[in-house]
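User: Show me a protein chain along with its predicted structure.
Assistant: Here is one chain, sequence first, then structure tokens.
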Amino acid sequence: MKRLTNIFWIFIPILLGILFIILDITYVCPFNYYFHIPCPGCGMTRAFKLILQGNILEFLQYNILAIPLFIFIILSMIFLVVDIIKNQTKYLAYIERISQKYGVWIILAVLVVWMCNIIINGERL
């Protein structure tokens, strides 16, 4: 069952990403719609679309946190596949340790980038 859950967490994001690109799905951010300011993740979907389409320079203007998040997602998928093949949970334990150790700094970085997005791009998003 655990192996099936890991496989689920690998392939669902891949399928969703492919659907977003192929179907060119757009949506309205509920946070932005109700509060009239961009949320911390505003621009991430557009940035990921641009990265996956190969527009590497253009994606930087949407959300700078897309770079580390995109790298993290790709590496996570690779390491989860390795964990599934080796039938272990070594990578998941590693992610848990990192989140406990650096969680406050990650949250702080998200808040700083969010404030910058509000100041710089608030009207555009």
